[in-house]
Amino acid sequence: MTTQQAGSEIAGYRIESLIGRGGMAVVYRAEDMRLGRKVALKLLTPQLADNEQFRQRFMRESRLAASLDHPNIVPIYEAGEADGQLFIAMRYVRGSDLKGALAAEGGRLPVERTLDLFTQIADALDTAHRAGLVHRDVKPGNILVAAGREHTRTGHGDHVYLTDFGLTKRTAELSSGLTGTGHFLGTVDYVSPEQIQGKPVGPGTDIYALGGVLYECLTGQLPFRRDDDAALLWAHLVEAPPPVTGIRPELPEAIDAVVAHAMAKDPADRYESCEVLLHELQRALGLPATISSQSGRHTDGAGGRTGRADLASDGPQADPDTVTGDVPDVSRHPSFPSGPLPRFMTQTSVSHGIPPPAEEEPGREEYDDAGSEWDEDEREAPPEPAARRRWGLVAIVAAVAVLVAISVVLLQSFLSSEDYRTFTSRETVVPFRLDHPADWGTVVSPASDIVLGPNPTAADELFFLRGAPDGWANATDAVRSGSPDSVWLYVYSSAATYDTADTQALQDSVASLLPRDTQFESAHREVSVAGAPADEMEAVASDPEDPQTRLRVLVDVVDPPGAGGAVLLAFFAPPDTFEDHRPTFERIRDSLEITG
Fold this sequence. Notes:
Elements: E1 9-10, E2 13-21, E3 25-32, E4 38-44, H1 46-49, H2 52-66, E5 76-82, E6 85-91, E7 95-97, H3 98-104, H4 111-130, E8 143-146, E9 160-162, H5 193-196, H6 203-219, H7 229-238, H8 254-262, H9 274-284, E10 298-299, E11 305-306, H10 308-314, H11 320-323, H12 391-415, E12 420-425, E13 432-437, E14 441-444, E15 450-453, H13 460-464, H14 473-480, E16 488-494, H15 503-511, E17 518-520, E18 525-529, E19 532-543, E20 546-558, E21 566-573, H16 578-591, E22 593-594
Helix pairs in contact: 4-6, 4-9, 6-8, 7-12, 8-9
């Protein structure tokens, strides 16, 4: 979708600057012209407004989300439609998201800070659940961490906001105009088994995801890391998360039971509320438990259910069976299918150049969530009797998919040279994979824009904060120093289509995604990339503060038939070294594969 220029107005809001963008929406800092306050204005891609069912549901869920009054849920000021454009005006939060906080801490958080954050997140989710709203996409990118100490708290002093309520429903009905198949707007890194199976969702769905986020905060790793979606979905369906203490042996073993309980395969076997999860986390760490919000029955650390009175009588003293002793054999958990669990060889891709979170793939493919509708009057479906669970069929289908996917991965690994590795993006509108030099790292914005290169952090602001006065600062320093690492690839995926018949219109659309003052030097030429039609152009980007600092640009706009969107590849390098890098650029471009 076209980027709004600073000063433009929509629905009574004046655009000031770009915050972030993704395939489905663009977020701006804007001013409410009626009240004079700063807001975060999210504009959804116009194709979404064309679908009447989505539009009505968007308005209904936005109203429900706006009714939530909680200090840790981003307030929604207004949601509506203006000139065919769906929008949401929210509180503008200065700071980062949890993904950025993890990166800043070297990949994982101190225990004290984790507890502080989860105290707030848990209470926010429980409040939403009592109002009949399930988030469905709890992940670090949807947890905002406010900058400064404006709202000073205990511990680290963070103030956390949960965002993107009302935007996490399934979008199967949008397949004709967006993705080609029904996909839900989320990531499968934290997806619950019931979502994978297309069953009704409920509060337990968010508790499962919260358990995955807890695992990542404590270890710096995702609970399940796989190179392909079939293997990852299989892991969510039948495998227990690896013990936290296998990575953090200094932590109490009871932590492993807490995570396993939160991520039980059957929603009925998980904690009954996020508050109870938090309570058990505190007990596992040997800390006094705090209970501050309303909740249902308590579930103890071993899986048994206790009433609220029992919880109160326990006091801060931990149950010895919960805090000490061996970790329960989760393979015998009642939510697991009977019989031995299969084990598959997997290959984990590791990126270089940034802290441990960069070792993980930045996104996961959206998946078909048809059947997960959970309206205001819907409640979590009762669990099926064990005898009726269809694990056998699920296991067979998943096993076949995993074996096929593993064969592909092994073949690709065999054919690829050791100096290249495969990068896979599954959270973008058009999922893809490509090969890049093994010493390149990746940085992914909250909007799923991607920068790759030997030193990607030197240029992330150049692309993610396009239009910011200091966006060029780090890149300019790298170019001036003559660093051989001054070479980058920027990748953007969008549901929008491009007018390739009009060169000027195409260049204007592409320029809106590139650094300021990018000047095209050639008309577009038709090429083929990944077996799909593409348009290629060359340009020069200059630092507005120092026009002598320039980067030469090679742009490929790939429009795969039936993919529901386009992929933009923009290669950057200083003019005097660009031709030296061209063979690398061409190899990366030729390796592109559309996976969605």
